[in-house]
Amino acid sequence: MNDTFIWSKFKATKVGDGKGNINWKANPYKNPSWYMWLHSLRWIGQGITAGSNGDKAALAHVTAITRDWVKDNPYSWKANAGAHEATMHRTNVLLCLRQAVLKNLKVTTLPSSYAWLDAALINHAKFMVANWGGPGNHGTDESIALFGVGCTLNRSDYKKTAQDRLAKGITTAIDAQGATNEQATGYAQFNYTLWGRAEAALQNCGVNPGTTIKARRALLGTFIAHATTPLGMLHQIGDTEYVKTNNAAGSPFEYAATQGKAGKAPADRVKIYSAGYVFGRSGWGSPQTPFASESAYSLRFGPKRALHGHSDHTSLTYQARGRDILIDPGYAGYANKTWRAWLTGPAAHNVMTTPKLADTNPVTKLTRSAVKPTNDFYELSDAPAAGVTRVRSVLVLRKPDVLVTLDRATAKTSQQFQTLWHLPADQRATASGRGTAVAKKSGDNNRTVLIQLPYKGALPAGATQVKTGQSNPIQGWHLPHITTRKAASTVVFSRAGKSVSILSLVIPTRANGAVTYKVRSVGTTYVVDLTIDGTKASFGITGGGTLVRR
């Protein structure tokens, strides 16, 4: 009741005079998200609820705040980015306030003294009709709000426009396989809830939503299940914070979200989405291997970066031994341009980079794949920089868990090529010699051994380095949340030339588990024999560049 606004981890800020007269230009933290949520009016929601339940003082206060926004921000507010972005959220608040007024006053028709509220709703509807955000999550949120105005004010034109947009949006936002168009796993989870709201809004106004929303949403639910790690977290891909998969009873991802405690496990161990995702795992849990003890990975390819995507093609995330092994450095929001540029760029992903050349935002093709009981193989190709071609071959072994990548690149001029491996912030990595780095957490019974093998030539000095918490250039960080930044080790495997190959092994094992290898040739196949904590495994690279388990 004192006009105080709080958002995220920022300190509470008094934005008004305590009587509902708000400074709508306030932005003390120079943060566009803070400013947008101020203009959303969602922060007065508890007051609206109290007013709906009979608290006349609360209702009067939130009404004063809302009317102050309407007075200070006349139609059209398009030039005000925060007010513009928040339109659909604010529309829902206006609708809730209208219902609270009717309930508090125990009437069915809005009194004439509140005519300004219906006028504001019409202006918001006009704004959304004229400024549709398209078939992404913003546009869907707008369509739900627009439909709400149409239903509340009995405006069939608003309802039809909203329904037409929802019909267009559902098949764009969720493709025929169930993948989101947002290029971010966090937004997949958000869209599952969003389209549930859309379906409910139609039904609550007596409109049959049809079958498409339900069917596509179920497919998206399966996508979310596969995008869930053995730790019960989402693979942190695109503009996604490090978050748990939210459970929804009866959903296709209930089993994954509860780590096997409820629901039904998906049928597939590996799922490949043409939108650019591979999700694989050793299994979904069993009496012998608990859900959290399975290993899992994600691999990115596909269309150019768009919406909430990052330049992460060919990047992997990896979990084994009940912990994260390889991470995505995360998401910083949109306010800090320097950090956003790094986090969305190639250097913040587990990929081969050319540091001195600009990223071309390539389309990346998955050219080959083979899924077998004890190993999975993939090959991807693209042109990530001018005059550069890149091929990554990936082999994921189980029993023992080993991740193998072969990166091959060619360039018109000699370049420095770096294959980057981003590690969790709770581990610290140290380089040992030219080809090995070891990451571990003090007191933990796990470590990760990273090896660059001397494939097609001896390793030069400086071939293996570790960057931790570096600020210029930025490297070696993890942002699990928008406002949280942690130093984290990045292992850098380097080679230089016009044509290079970098062969990497990522091996999770016990803290005291010995890791050794030997190389040999069998015809034209380069064979690596591994011994990991007493368990033997071998793989080969054929003359054609295929990685195979032997």
Tally the helices: what do you get?
Answer: 12
Give the N-to-C terminal Cα separation.
70 Å
The structure class reads: alpha+beta
Q: What is the number of domains?
A: 2
Strand content: 25-35%
The amount of helix comes to: 25-40%
Rg from alpha-carbon coordinates: 27 Å
Q: What is the count of β-strands?
A: 25
Integer average pLDDT = 97
* CATH architectural type of the largest domain: Alpha/alpha barrel
Q: Can you tell me the CATH superfamily of the largest domain?
A: Chondroitin AC/alginate lyase
Shape: elongated
Output the CATH class name of the largest domain. Answer: Mainly Alpha
CATH topology descriptor of the largest domain: Glycosyltransferase
Low-confidence stretches: none
| Biggest sheet architecture | 10 strands, antiparallel
Can you describe what's shown?
Strands 8, 9, 10, 11, 12, 13, 14, 15, 16 and 21 form a 10-stranded antiparallel beta sheet that branches. The protein has helices spanning 32-40, 45-52, 56-72, 81-85, 87-105, 115-130, 137-153, 156-173, 185-204, 212-226, 254-257, 337-344, and strands at residues 4-5, 13-14, 270-273, 277-281, 296-300, 316-320, 323-326, 352-353, 365-372, 375-385, 388-397, 402-422, 428-432, 436-440, 446-453, 464-468, 470-471, 474-475, 477-481, 484-487, 489-510, 515-522, 525-532, 535-541, 547-549. 28% of the residues lie in helices and 30% in strands. It starts with a strand and ends with a strand. The chain folds into 2 domains: 4-228, Chondroitin AC/alginate lyase (Glycosyltransferase, Alpha/alpha barrel); 295-510, Beta-galactosidase, Chain A, domain 5, CATH 2.70.98.70. The protein contains 12 helices and 25 strands. Residues 304-490 form the Heparinase II/III-like C-terminal domain. It is found in: Periplasm. This is Heparinase II/III-like protein. Keywords: Lyase, Periplasm, Signal.
